[in-house]
Design a protein that fits this description.
Chain A: Keywords: Cytoplasm, Detoxification, Transferase. The complex is a heterodimer of chains A (219) and B (224). In chain A, helix 1 packs parallel to helix 3 and helix 7 packs across helix 11. Chain A folds into 2 domains: 73 residues, 3-Layer(aba) Sandwich (Glutaredoxin); 128 residues, Up-down Bundle (Glutathione S-transferase Yfyf (Class Pi), Chain A, domain 2). With 219 residues, chain A is an alpha+beta fold. In chain A, 59% of the residues lie in helices and 8% in strands. Chain A has a 4-stranded mixed sheet. Chain B is an alpha+beta fold. Chain B folds into 2 domains: 73 residues, Glutaredoxin, CATH 3.40.30.10; 129 residues, Glutathione S-transferase Yfyf (Class Pi), Chain A, domain 2 (Up-down Bundle), CATH 1.20.1050.10. Chain B is built from 10 helices and 4 strands. In chain B, helix 1 runs parallel beside helix 3, helix 4 packs antiparallel against helix 5 and helix 7 crosses helix 10. Classes of the chains: A alpha+beta (219), B alpha+beta (224). The interface between A and B is medium-sized, with 21 and 23 residues.
């Protein structure tokens, strides 16, 4: 199972953060390579010719693309420690369902919150909060979505927490006011070293969004 | 038989829905007995809404009263619950590749081909150009292989399987070739897949499909 592990990534990417967390949870040493997305490396284009996107996990020279596929790959290869998916097939299906839900909803809805204004932004905020509330419902009284420990859904969702502050500033709202249990969960995750060292500082993300807004010409 | 006495498997689907059809194939491949419930999507049953409250969509697999929705997730669930005739390989890298191909179909290939069907003018031209890129990738993927799963069909074959039937129907309805002689491996795979014993009796009736997609096409392209 050992062998060179390289991660092609971009520091603000929630998707890259997922893979960072999974690698950290399993205690895997790897080489982190920061990509400049306006000037993609030969290696990135060679390893992900179809999508040309990060993150790309390279293990023994072979690429695995798509963050949730990477997390499952890491879980399957390093299967002797810190399991991210449960062993029961039905519980695995539930975990995959919510990770997939996060992929389908949270990124696009969150993006709309910072990219739009007026009516469009109000709708985006409403939909975003609705999705978070559904996730809060799924969390219930558990410490983590994975139960006692970080699991697949925790890894899929917690990277977005680093973007919440930026969303709140742009949208002029409080996510904690609407979803206190989810924020409590996020802060619990941040107590874990694997999460804390994988997520960038929220002020840096906010600066990044302000910079993106300038580039996209969004007020 | 594969089921033991206590197993109860139900599948909510429709007569034509391609996502439900994938699940039918997986169940047949593993010899699992199930009850098929064909929904009328304009009048969804209370049970469907109860089993899939988040998306309210088909297919939904209900195993001993527990629902699983989203076709790709259902395929993985079936593979992990019933071990005979595995859909995913053992090797983690190969598994990742199959999942990557499945995602490619859902996010790239299927949407661009569907856009050829639904759009017109410049939008259709763009969809066709995008489809060419996507089909080229799929063709490359088949080099040196009989199926996407290699020697026998796997997850990616089940996910791409819609093409073996629906491409021909689209081409007939639109009057345009989508998968032509530029893609010989893909054409051969489509033929092979269509005829597989596990697959060939599951296709929805051709005439009914033509009528359905003809009507859909007219909705998207109303006569001026």
């Amino acid at each position: 199972m050992e062998g060179a592990v390289v991660l092609l990534d971009f520091w603000p990417s929630m998707f890259g953060m997922r893979t960072r967390i999974a690698l950290a949870e399993k205690g895997i040493k790897y080489e982190y390579k920061e990509e400049d997305l306006r000037n993609k490396s030969e290696l990135l284009l060679q390893m992900n010719p179809v999508h040309k996107k990060i993150p790309v996990l390279i293990h023994n020279g072979k690429p695995v693309c798509e963050s949730l596929i990477q997390v499952q790959y890491i879980d399957e290869v390093w299967n002797d420690r810190a399991p991210l998916l449960p062993s029961d097939p039905y519980k695995r299906a539930i975990a995959r369902f919510w990770a997939d839900f996060i992929d389908k909803k949270i990124y696009d809805q969150g993006s709309k919150v910072w990219k739009t204004k007026g009516e469009e932004q109000e709708t985006a905020k409403k939909e975003f909060i609705e999705s978070l509330k559904l996730l809060e419902g799924e969390l219930g009284d558990k410490a983590y979505f994975g139960g006692e420990n970080l699991g697949f859904v925790d890894v899929a969702l917690v990277p977005f927490y680093s973007w919440f502050y930026a969303y709140e500033k742009c949208g002029n709202f409080s996510i904690e006011a609407e979803c206190p249990k989810l924020i409590a969960w996020a802060m619990r995750c941040m107590q874990k070293e694997s999460v804390a060292k994988s997520l960038p500082d929220r002020e840096k993300i906010y600066e990044f969004i302000l910079h993106m807004k300038k580039i996209f010409g969004i007020e | 038989m594969a089921n033991n006495m206590a197993e109860e498997v139900k599948l909510f689907k429709t007569w034509s829905n391609i996502f439900g059809l994938r699940v039918v194939w997986a169940l047949k491949l593993k010899g699992i007995e199930y009850e098929a419930i064909d929904e009328d999507l304009s009048n969804k049953s209370a049970l469907l809404l109860q089993y899939n409250p988040v998306y309210k969509k088909v297919p939904v697999l209900v195993h001993n009263g527990k629902p699983v929705s989203e076709s790709l997730l259902i395929l993985e669930y079936i593979d992990e619950t019933w071990n005979q005739n595995p859909i995913l390989p053992e090797d983690p890298f190969e598994r990742a590749r199959q999942r990557f191909l499945a995602k490619f179909n859902e996010e790239k290939l299927l949407p661009t081909i569907w856009a050829i069907f639904t759009k017109e003018g410049k939008d259709r031209e763009e969809a066709m150009a995008a489809s060419v890129e996507n089909l080229k990738f799929v063709e490359e993927e088949l080099k040196g292989k009989k199926f996407f799963g290699s020697e026998k069909i796997g997850l990616a074959d089940l996910v791409f399987g819609w093409m073996a039937n629906l491409i021909g129907i689209f081409e007939e309805v639109i009057g345009l070739k989508i998968v032509d002689e530029r893609y010989p491996l893909l054409l051969a795979w489509m033929q092979e897949f269509y005829e597989l014993p596990v697959i060939k009796d599951t296709w929805p009736p051709h005439d009914k499909m033509i009528i359905k997609y003809q009507a859909l096409y007219e909705n998207y392209h109303p006569a001026k």
